[in-house]
Structures are given as C-alpha cells and as structure tokens.
Design a protein that fits this description.
Blueprint: H1 3-14, H2 19-25, H3 30-44, E1 49-52, E2 55-59, H4 61-88, E3 93-99, H5 101-118, E4 122-128, H6 131-140, E5 145-148, E6 158-166, E7 168-172, H7 177-180, H8 187-190, E8 195-198, H9 205-214, E9 221-225, H10 228-236, E10 241-245, E11 258-261, E12 269-276, H11 283-292, H12 298-306
Parallel strand pairs: 3-4, 3-5, 8-9, 8-10
Antiparallel strand pairs: 1-2, 5-12, 6-12, 7-10, 7-11
Helix pairs in contact: 1-3, 1-4, 2-3, 5-11
Length: about 325
C-alpha cells in the first residue's frame, strides 16, 4: 500500500470516476491510475469501485467504507508535512484562503494587510467562489481556511466558527423617491420598485426572500448578481433599487449613491470561518484567523476542532 494508490482512489471519486481527468490531476497516465487502484484492491481483497467494462461508475459498499479512511490517511500525511514545515521553516510558507466575493472585496482587505505586515514571508493565495464552491475548496485541500456567510455549517467535515454579524442596506440614486418621503422604509414601499440584489445562495439572499414572503409580498427582481459592485453599478444606471450588505456601501467611494439602513427589514446575517476537521494548522494560520476575527484565539479554535461533528458555535 502506498500514498499514490490512496491518491488515485480519492481523485477517482473527486473527478466523478473519470480516470482521464484523474491522470491529469496526478500527472500520470490513465493506465497508471487504473493499475494503482487495482493493486490496492488486490491488497485489500475487495473491490472499491463498481465497473462497467473498463469504466468506473461508482463506489461499492466496501468502497463507501474505505473512502473516509483513505481521506483521513491522506489528511494525516498532509498534517505531518505541515507539522514539519512549521518547525523547519518558522514564519515561512503559504496560506490559501477561499472566500465569497463579498468577503474578499469588503471584509478581508484589512485583515490581509495586517497579517502581511507581521508575516512578510508567507505567501497568501486568495480564491473566490460561491459559498458551496468555497466549502468544496476547503474539503478538497485547495484552501486552508474558508470564509462565507452561507453553506459552511452544512458540512460535518468542517468546523465553522462565527466571525461577525452584519445587516443589509438599500442603495439608490440621490434623487430616488424613497429618499424624499419622510417616513420609515417598509417592505411594502420597497416592493413597489424594481429590485437588484444578490443571486440565490449569496450574501444573505435567503433572509431577503424570507422577509418578503412573511409579509405576503413579491419582490420585483429585475437583476441579480454575485458581487455588490455589480449591483451598485446597475443601481447607478437607474435600473432599480439595490439591496446589498451594509459593508459594501461606503459614502466616500459610492458618491453617486445613497443608502438606507435596512436592518429592521431583514434578519441579521452571520459570517463564518471554516477549517477542515482534523487538519493541522500552521502557527501563522492561527494568527490569520485571529487577525480576521479577534475572538477566535488559538485556544478557541483548538477547542472547536476537538468538538463533536455537528456542533454549531455562536458568539
């Protein structure tokens, strides 16, 4: 049994049993991948994969049991390497952060700046995606830390820690009628105008939909996007009223827009930071976590990593 055999099994599952893609990921040949898998099956005395001719089509019942063990062995191998690096190369290395567009654009810059000032020899890699893509980057090992508002608590393999709460704002052009009326903003008044906001599954969109539904109203959605800057651009063009995360509006930067605090209309959101359960974190990774969210000290993170799967942490 060797690690190349284990990697071949893991990648076969990750790449939907397409051995051509597996071979590309592992920088080897397709026959080589097939041989590694078959040799491991022969050694274990069971078939890991269901086959249709020469093609792999799924996992057998023994394969379903074996896969989590393979994942743990490869994670422990990576942890061993990281532990060695932590002692051999103090303060040097790489750290990969996966975050949604809103977090990368508005929440992370200050933390990245402060972290870089203390760890100039650490190379940061910032990956962006949807909440589910962010979670999957963490699960696959492409990222060390994930930051998002949605999805992270839905994976038992991840430890999701609370970072900060945030609310929405309504953004509109300076001359908009909603700014001229001297009465509180309501969902009924908001529903009378075209609305531009986030795609489903992004940046608190579920809370926006729930609020309108509770009032028996239907939002007149004319455009949705992943990025608040895109939303604000089309609001400036007069296509509608925008609903964005409050951190996405800045008076100085967004001079052609105005904002109305909408915390009384939509539920409060929680941004979380996630780590893969069982992973070894380099010392500087702990420092980045606390730089981004001060309450998440090393002791807090270690306690969370040691907790039972399924436990949700709040602040």
């Amino acid at each position: 049994m060797n690690f190349q055999q284990l990697r071949s099994v893991r990648e076969a599952v990750r790449q939907d049993f397409n051995l051509t893609v597996v071979a590309q990921v592992l920088s080897t040949s397709q026959p080589g991948v097939s041989r590694q898998i078959r040799e491991l099956e022969d050694e274990l005395g069971v078939e890991i994969f269901v086959r249709a001719g020469k093609r792999l089509t799924g996992l057998t019942p023994p394969g379903e049991t074996i896969l989590p063990i393979v994942e743990r062995l490869l994670l422990d191998c990576e942890n061993l390497r990281r532990a060695g690096d932590d002692f051999a190369a103090q303060g040097q290395g790489q750290l990969a952060i996966a975050a949604t567009h809103s977090q990368a654009r508005y929440a992370l810059p200050t933390a990245v700046r402060d972290f870089r000032s203390r760890h100039p020899d650490v190379v940061l890699h910032l990956h962006q995606g949807s909440p589910r893509q962010v979670a999957e980057m963490l699960l696959s090992g492409e990222a060390d830390i994930a930051i998002a508002t949605e999805a992270l608590t839905q994976y038992p393999e991840l430890v999701a820690l609370p970072c900060y709460r945030w609310t929405h704002s309504v953004v509109l052009p300076p001359e908009h009628p909603l700014l001229q009326e001297e009465q509180p903003l309501t969902l009924q008044r908001l529903a009378a105008y075209p609305i531009i906001t986030y795609d489903a599954g992004y940046t608190g969109r579920a809370h926006i939909d729930e609020a309108f539904k509770r009032q028996g109203l239907e939002a007149n959605l004319v455009l949705t996007a992943m990025d608040a800057d895109v939303i604000k651009t089309y609001v400036e063009l007069g296509l509608g009223v925008g609903i964005v995360a409050s951190i996405a509006y800045d008076e100085e930067r967004d001079r052609h827009l105005r904002a109305i605090d909408a915390r009384h209309l939509f539920a409060v959101n929680m941004t979380r930071l996630a780590i893969r359960r069982g992973t070894w974190l380099r010392t500087y990774a702990y420092d980045f976590i606390q730089t981004f969210a001060a309450p998440l000290t090393r002791a807090v993170v270690d306690k969370a990593l040691a907790a039972e799967p399924g436990e949700v942490f709040e602040i």
